[in-house]
Structure formats: C-alpha cells, structure tokens
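Reopening this one. Same input as before:
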Amino acid sequence: MTRPADHPAPTLRPLYRAEQVRELDRRTISGGIAGFALMQRAAAAAWQELRARWPHVQSLTVLCGGGNNGGDGHVLAALAAAEGLAVQRLLLKPVSELSGDARRAADMATAAGVSAEPWREGLSLEGDLVVDALLGTGLGGEVRGAARQAIEAVNASGLPVLAIDIPSGLHADTGAMLGAAIRATRTVTFIGDKLGLYTGAAPAHVGEPVFCALGVNAEAEGDLVPAARRLEAGLIAAWLPPRPRDAHKGDYGHALVLGGAPGFGGAALLAAEACARLGAGKVSLATAPEHVTASLVRRPEVMVHGVRGAGDLEALPERADVLVVGPGLGQGSWGQGMLQAALAASRPLVVDADGLNLLASRFAGHQRDDWILTPHPGEAARLLGCSAGEVEADRPAAARALQRRYGGVVVLKGAGTLIAGPEGLAVCSHGNPGMASGGMGDALSGILGALLAQGVELETAARLGVLVHALAADRAAREGGERGLLAGDLASCARILVNPTVCDGKGEDDAAATR
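Same output, byte for byte:
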C-alpha cells in the first residue's frame, strides 16, 4: 500500500533512556537555565498536576530521598504549604547531609514552615495523599533498607500516590521492578519521556503517566537518538486512509492462515476471522480436515481447506500474498510440515505460537527480512536460549536481540508490547489485563496478516497491528469489562478502529497528557 501524499508518516512520541535525559538536563543547565530553576519548574509542574487530579486534598505526605528527585519533593512541599495544606515531610537522608540544589530545596521547604523528620519503620503516613520523591531515575540496583521500607509502607497504606519523574524502585530504561516499587496513581515525568514508564512492570506501577517537557525540546538535540517511539492512536488514520470508491477485493490481498492441528482448530479460526475483519481481500485457512465444518459454520467468508499434511497444500501458499503460521499449529509432524511449507514459500510470514517454538527447536538458524515474529516472554526465552525471567528483566534488550538474531520485525508481547525492527524500537502502552486470556495472540497474528495482505510495509504493519489489537481490547473492555474478555470479542472492535469515519474516538486518545 502506497501512503497518499496527504497522509505523511506520523511522528511518534520519542522515549529516552535515563542517561539521555540526564544529558538533556546537563545541556539545558549549560545553556543558561540554572539547575535549581529547573528543579522549581519540575516541582511546580508536579504541583499543578496534583491540584488538577486531587483538588480537594488538604494534607500531603512527601517522601524525599537524598538526590535531586528528593529536591523536587522539597520544593513541592514548600508550594503546598504556601497554599495552606498540611505537609508531612519524611526524609531518607538528613538535611545536614544534603548538598547542591537538593540542599537548597530542603532549606526552601524549611523556610516555608514545613517540618521534617527522618523516615523510620512503623511511621504513620498522615497525609490524604503521598508524593513519592524518593529515588528517581538513577536507580540501578535492588532497593534495600529504609527506601524499601518506605516503599512497602506507602503501598500498604492504600493512599493515592503522585510519583515524581518515576515511581521509586522502577528501572527507568527497562520498566523492571528492582525488588520493590511504588504503585502510583499518577506519575509526572520531565525533560524527556522515559521508555521504562511503558513496559514490563511499569503499567502496574505508573498509574496515569503525564509528560512535562519543562520548556526543553529533546528532539532538537539531533545526536540524542530516542531509545524508542511510543505508539499513539493517530497512527491508525494516518496509515489506513479511506478506500477509493472503485476498490475491489483484489486490491487488498490474499492471506493464508496455516494452523489448527487436530484438536486445535479454534486458534487458527480466531486468526482467520481477525484477518478478515481487518480488511484482507480474501482469507484462506488450511487446517486439519475435522475442523472444516465448524470453521465454515463460524465464518463462511473464509475459504477453508482441510489438509492432512503439507502434501495437501499443493500450490496454496504460492497463491496467497502473505502467510500466517502458528495458531494451533502444534509441534508434531503436522505442524512441522506446515511450517516447513511456509518457510519454503516466497511470501511474507507472520509466525506465532508453536511456529515460534518449532523455530527455536527444529528449525533453528532461520533468518529473513520478510517476516514478523510475535513471541510472548516464554517463547522469546526459547528463541534466545535464556529464561523468561531474563527476558522480563530487560524487555527492550531482549526485543532488540531477537531482531538481530532472526531479522525482520519482532513483536515482544506482554504489558507494554515492544516492536523491534530496522527503524528501531516502538512501544505500545495501550491494552488491559483482560487480554490475559487464551487466543489473544492468535487474533493479533490475524490482524498482522491482514495488514500485510493489504500492502502495509512490514514494520509499519507490526506497529499498526499491535496498536489496533490493544485499542480493540480497550474498547471491548469499556463495553463489557476486563474480566471475561475473549479474543473473539476483538475482531468487531478492531474493524471499527480501522474505519476512522465510523470510530467515535472515545478513549482512543493518548492516555498521557503533554503539558
């Protein structure tokens, strides 16, 4: 599909590593803005967000660490006191041991009449709301000692939490939880948005993310290449403009789903149905013969072929424009034959589920530029020869390693799905816990196959497919709730999303505001 001239490629929001944001901070200060002035801007922005989100709060507990993140907390405490709020200021490090801007900020809070006391285990949190200014983005090792005690006390309190820059205990680059991490209600981050706020453990700890640039234009620094880009809903309309009035099914490709070994027909059918709902011109399904009748009853628009083995496929793969292989494939001889036939065909591939497991075990060493691999952490671990825990400890690194080893584009599924391709890393922060149910990956593989069949370029198809899949799940959850959400619920919601003139846009806007 050629993108029309009036639909330029969208610019996705840049995300940075903590080291890059520190460099932006350093450059801003060297450019003439004092470090303490920048700290005051950050605290003022956080204070504004606090008042906007919790306008009726009358008392705060502010936990301050020993660095500049703690300094932001001290300044915010002073601002709150100036507006008449009761402020409890708890310190991990005595004011006498602070230095630089952090000391200046602590003195500012003291001058504003805010008392300070050292954190100690068992201390009561007296505010209606907690401000987390403990550890910031410089954390590299596991949280221990008093910091861990404070984090656990905040989480146990049940109080709403505003995290400054990042929830304490969360790794700013990977989103991994370093032993313990604050569960925030809202997180206000500054200067450059951080990759670690959107993947791994982050969705369970960040709450609502809000980015405040503080007047710093990170993208103007051309030598600081973003660590990733964040997918936003506007990508859908930009890449899927309305169809011309004289369109016909031949314009939108033919996708073939290979899957549904004996006893596993549902997964392949879910993929085929999602593929059809996302607009592929024709969809075929090659599945075990015993699944043909059920498939035709469920979705008669799909051309179903009963195949006892790869020999029954004949020229079917070559007649398709894209192949989706893996849903319900199994790892037996039937599945092995289907995958071997798919790999031999000169067609773009989407490989999922047991297709990935077979790649890791019986078809190792394959690398190609025209496929999308869609592993969850367990499958990613098998493909990399490591543990799922190692994958989750640094999801961005795992996604990049998979793409280097196997080529094409890799979709590392999970909370904050990552897409790694030649253009770099992208992250999807949409989706919900209702997606923790069987068949969701099968629906995604069908969506990806449909986009490739329609001529969407490989990496764009991966990004767009992940985004549509997540937003469809969010839409379905709004209509019926997260618990009990089924993969089969997504196809109709996804269809609405890829038709922007039909979609009412409710809830599809980016969750994080830019101030």
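So the earlier flakiness isn't reproducible anymore. For the record, The mean pLDDT is 93.
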